[in-house]
Amino acid sequence: MINFSLNGLNAQVEKGTTILEAAKFYGFPIPTLCFMEGLSPYGACRLCVVEIGEEPRTKLVSSCTYPVEEGMKVRTASTRVIRARKMVLELLLASCPQSKVIQDLASAHHIMQQRFKQEHEDCILCGLCVRMCKEQMMAKAIGFSGRGEKRKLGTPFNIKSEVCRLCGGCIYVCPACQLRCTYTDPEKAICGGCANLSPPCVEKEKFDDMMCYMEPCVACEIKKE
Ligand code: SF4
Ligand code: SF4
Ligand code: SF4
Ligand code: FES
Questions:
Q1: Does the CB atom of residue 219 touch ligand 3 within 6 A?
Q2: Residue 9 domain-assigned?
Q3: 198 and 142 assigned to the same domain
């Protein structure tokens, strides 16, 4: 077992536990965006930053990818952490203001406006769809290409994927999508809404064959009524 300090509390976790997992276990909330249980951590958004080390040599790390170390001192909500998280959220809001997920996160952090140039990106490069496709759907139909500003999501050689299973999983996890599935609240379900979006590897007209990721799919259930 590894002993460490979490917000001043003496804590103990198994070797290999990430700071995020440990904080969750001990009841300290840390916001995340590119992390999803069931998918491998990716460390792309930096929203989950925490402060580690002792003054004056502390540093910010992504808690979803950083493993707990013996004797480590972790602060999940220090002034520096909150400032960094707010900055990340402002940048995310600037790049993708239409995202309900980002709006909700910003609101929870009392951010009402952002100071950067407004864009309307349809992808924030969080990698959730790529991991969903590879790790849960076993398809590997999509991935990233390019570096820096040229980094983008797509299929190999930008041609329609032959291995895509039309499952809709990538759409379901995408935080940049405005039309979130509201399966848990059928009254407000935007069923069929996802069919108006072009996922990276599926052409619109092929949506007729689409198998909904949800089981049962609300769209199909409503059609039956
Ligand atoms: S719809 Fe295609 S690209 Fe999206 S998760 Fe399923 S297999 Fe992957
Ligand atoms: S398409 Fe959506 S899920 Fe995929 S990387 Fe971009 S923002 Fe993330
Ligand atoms: S059709 Fe399926 S994936 Fe699309 S919003 Fe409805 S339940 Fe979700
Ligand atoms: S949730 Fe940890 S970097 Fe995105």
A1: yes
A2: yes
A3: yes
* Smallest CA separation from ligand 2 atom 3, residue: 174
- Does any ligand 3 atom lie closer than 6 A to the CB of residue 220? no
Q: What is the CATH number of the domain that holds 64?
A: 3.10.20.740
Query: Ligand 3 centre from 220 Cα, in Å?
Result: 9
Q: pLDDT (tens digit, 9 = 90+) per residue, 178-218? A: 444 443 444 443 344 444 444 544 444 544 555 555 455 54
**d(CA 174, ligand 2 centre) in Å:** 5
Residue 64 lies in a domain: yes
- 48-84 as b/e, with b when 16 or more CB fall inside 10 Å? bbbbbeeeeeeebbbbbbbebeeebebbbeeeebeeb
Q: Can you state the percent helix, strand and coil of the chain, rounding each to 5?
A: 30, 15, 55
33 and 96 share one domain = yes
126 within ligand 2 shell (Cβ under 6 A): yes
Domain region containing 192: 128-224
| pLDDT digit string, tens, across residues 50-89 | 999 998 899 999 999 999 999 999 999 999 999 999 999 9
